[in-house]
Fold each of these.
Amino acid sequence: MTSHHTKPQQTVVPRFERVDVIGGALMVFIAALIWFGASALDGGTLVRIGSGALPRGLAVLLFVAGAAVLVQGLLQGNDRAERVYLAVRPSAIVLAAIVLFGLFIRGGNFGLFSTPQLGLIIVGPLTVFIAGSATPEMDLKSLIVLSFGLTAAMLLIFMDLLSVTIPVFPKFIQDPLTFAIGIDALVRIAYVAYAAIAAVLYVFFFGLPEMRRG
Amino acid sequence: MADLFNNLYVGFAAIMSVQNVFLCFVGCLLGTLIGVLPGIGPLATIAILMPLTYNAEPIGSLIMLAGIYYGSQYGGSTTAILVNMPGETSSLVTTFDGHAMAKQGRAGKALGIAAIGSFIAGTFATFVIAGTAIPLSKLALSFTAGNYFALMVLGLALAIVLAGGSVVKAVCTLIIGIVMALIGADQITAEPRLTFGLQILYDGFDIAIVSMGLFGIAEILRNLEFPEQKPFVGAVTGGLLPDREDIKQSAGAIARGSVLGSIIGIIPGNGATLSSFVSYALEKALSKRPERFGKGAIEGVAGPESANNAAAQTTFIPLLTLGLPSTAVMALVGGAMTLHGVVPGPQVITKHPDLFWGVVSSMWVGNLMLVVINLPLIGIWVKFLKVPYHLLFPTIVLFCCIGIYSVNSRPSDVLEVAAFGALGYLFYKLRFELAPLLLGLVLGSMLEDNLRRGLILSNGNVWTFLSEPLTLALLTAAFLALGSALVPSFSKGRELLVDED
């Protein structure tokens, strides 16, 4: 981007891709944001400091520190400069899996939109499946087995052993069925079924392991 | 002295219920289990497992949390010796001689002496905590708001200086943490601060959510960058029990490590890491044949392992007696205490004696359990080391989602975890240390509270505030600590200390 001299073998790190430049700029931005947010708050007096005093003071400090990082990044020699590298794809996939879990586990109104409750029985395998596809080392077969097996294991651990309540089924299924057989029985049927699916698929994909453990 | 034993008796009486011993056991076991997994350090382990402890009673949950902490530390040593991968910086030194011993077929002895040394050091540190707690908390009760404020500033300054990475950047994350603590309803007026009109911000930030995102999820994102390496795990060879010769060689190292670690652990910052380095240097300096170090000297394992365990334990002292967490892990423990309605500080001993002494006694029980359950289980831990990462991380993701949802049954908490995961990853890539942020988050409102009260008492006069000798001394020390970290030769030493993270 800019023409500063470099040693032959070294690749030039443009100023705007440097770790310290972006980091410093981010801090300056956050400082501005804090200042903006605190501007409406009362600063108070020294005897009775108001709710805005500390945020504003800290915003100034953060601005100074961030600016120092920024300037240091701009001035540092190319040999010390470090390029920002983000592994966007795997990170985005894993985060998407978590967001999906949050949106559909119980559903609800998220301001701009609302979502239905799908419960762990559907969200669990999906979360594992999506998160697991973040790495090329994962093969589809293991991923499918893992999705069902893990959901079964989590239901067992959280619902039966720790007795935590998590929505397990989609709302429209849960209500009528709970009425018929009770939620505990229903959950147990569900995780036994998922564990069975995982086991059958495992045998189908990979054959019988030498030592079988329940 | 009689008091000390009486207090410890109260503690043991409090924890010797079937349930509490079980929780301690589960904590140690789970902590070791996750801590042994490659690429997951103690901070991430605790962040991931914290929601599990919420269902128990306050005392049980703290016992379990402490167990998780020691367990994950212990797991780090195991991987350091067996696969030359320190799970955290405090086990780094263990790789020097521990892994060398493993290569010579003495892995069992290295693991054994690490466990025994840790247990002896842990026992010693338990007594140190029990002995210092009452005088320190009495001292703390006489502190004025100004003293407290200055003490916090000093603690934070030392934590920054000893934490590693760029000092200026650590200051940045600390400030962000403090501001995050201020977001939400004002403590006095309840008016919304910095919420930008968002309801979700009005409730402020939950430490479990923030830490799980910043440390748990972000660590997964970091690990996904690199193609998976299959750690080469050798079989554990040789007996676990050291022979007479080994004990003779390491007894002094264990004793010195215990004392050193107990002292250094009290200092804010990464006491466990610092103490293991200092102990290693000390043993090498005292040794008649220092050339053996790095090539499998058993003292090089015994000393640092004892030191870091003692230090890991005495870091509880500032939290339990002054209410000031000095490391990110202690910030998490403090957060968990607050959640159960126990505000860490000098009042804990008098208000909740059974809880206080129970936690102190449980440290000893936890250490004993680590030795008793983990040495026989070493074969199982080795198997866990071999679990490929691509099967591991989706498991952790699902576990985190369910865990954090189960705390409050709020879907938005899960979304927050994702947001902090992204933020943690970004900050890591921009080389910003995140431990100060967590400290700031926990201390922020206390800091403001004491500043406010101090200024009210001094009638708003900053100068009378500063003329109070103790306050002035503490603030000067903080200033000097920060200043010295910016001096080039000193900052070189800091880099050396934490470079290998």
Amino acid sequence: MSLKSVATSFYTLLAVVIALAWAFPVYWMLNSSLLPNSTLQSLTPTFLPFGGSLDNFTSVFKHNDGSFFTALGISLTVTLSTVAIVLFIAFLGALAISRFRFKGRKSFILALLLIQMLPAEGMFIAQYKMMSSVGMLNNVIGLTVLYTAAVVPFTIWMLRGFVAGVPAELEEAAMVDGLSRTQAFLRITFPLLAPGLVASGVYAFLQAWNEFTVALVLMDGENQTLPLWLRGFVQSSATRETDWGMVMAASTLVAVPVIIFFLLVQSKMSSGLVGGAVKG
Amino acid sequence: MSTNAPAPPQARQRVETPAAQLKTPRKKRTWVAPVLLILPSIVVLMAALGYPIGWQFITSFKKFGLLQQFGAAPEWVGFANYIALLQDPYLWVVLGRSLLFCLICAFSTVAIGGGLAMLMKRVGTAARLILQIAMLLAWSMPVVATMTVWIWLVDWRRGVLNWVLDKFGADSIGHNWLASPVTFFAIAVVIVVWMSVPFVALSIYAGLTQVSAEVLEAAEMDGATGWQRTRLIVMPLIAPVLSIVLLLQLIWDLRVFTQIKLLQEAGGTASETNMLGTYIYQLGVGSGDFGTASAVSILMLIITVAISWYYVRSLMKEEN
């Protein structure tokens, strides 16, 4: 065996070992969610869910009269509204800064960059006060507005890379052929932007679905998004000996839909993130 | 997506010259369309952020005490909150802790991420896919679910970590990692790095795939060693990606909140483990001291802008 192939097999082995180690927490969540609490109470961990069951999941669904489904409904409403509004607004904004030169363009871009640096944790008291003064505390619409504003700047930044990637010459050629500027854009450029819209939509989805801080401050009582619900679930379980099987089943229910969704669209997502972020 | 996109000056030429020639009468109206296009974003941003930023700024000059909790109007105290804060040793402890945590996390994340990206470049397709999927799993986990699993992994009685260490003879069963600040932060660093490395590794890998193989071959034929090729060709080409991911990590790790808050709830002592985010939360939501909480958030904003200023300036220069 040559030196080079020894090195290659070493690197391959290294990559696989690191991959397994990295994925271990995710595996451990799934594994624990399938095991009964009596098994998890043992001092020796069980590494394979042989003889496991879906009982933990059934218990989670029944917990507090199905509060999981209430939270799921709220999370879906907030997330999907945020994605729809963000895509519409950010698309227009990205179009403006990549296809037009106008007064105030630079200030707008600077504002987008600076907003991404605002510490959300430094603003939640003010946002709480604001929402309380307009009577939108504990309100899905209020939460959607705040999520939209938090996600829009980066989404514009990302989409701008995609719009810039479609050569304006294509539109100009169509305009020479007699289309108006709007027509040329809608018929030629817009279809080419589909991957960019998907990538930005996924980004917005993940941000809104996983958001914790703003929801923690703004929402109350029964009105919980899934991350809040999960935290409450863990806390209620921790008062006794923690029922790790149920807690892991609950975490799995919050995480797995996102993981599957993410794996399906990831190739567009990562190229979009890099492209949008690195492009001038 | 390629990173060598047309530079903005070319874009300007492209849009203005031919379009203006085609539709001369439109020229007058060119500012109307873009302004209408950015109007919705401005409205949303102003509604959600404009008022809070203003409120935060003004409130940082007001004093909130017990009386205010019963409805009295807060008193205007000028810079008193800031002065009190800057003289409070605890703020410096929290600030130092936050900065140290942020630097350790951000630099380890970029170093490990860069290493993994180079590993992905070296290995065959199968091994690379396995590594990429593991990265994506970690990346897409919602943060609250991530924290729950990690707290279970380090659970003092039945966590796998203690069991494994015990197998290696460390007699660690029953050791509570979250009780002491040093191990609390060690765990926090591991978790934050675990969740941030995937984004960095995949971004740098995407950057590495843009480095053309022909150039590297040519350099090899000219006699450049492996290290020279890395340092003189690969590094400069991926430098923009490296600097942007490092900057993003610095900003994100400085404002880390959810991870610390949930670890505190799982057994950390708040006063010994507070960082800027949890400190603001404790001051404002916990004690109703909105004035001081606002002053801390303004300080945090200043620090963040200071860290990113160089980057923002260089990006804005490109816009010219």
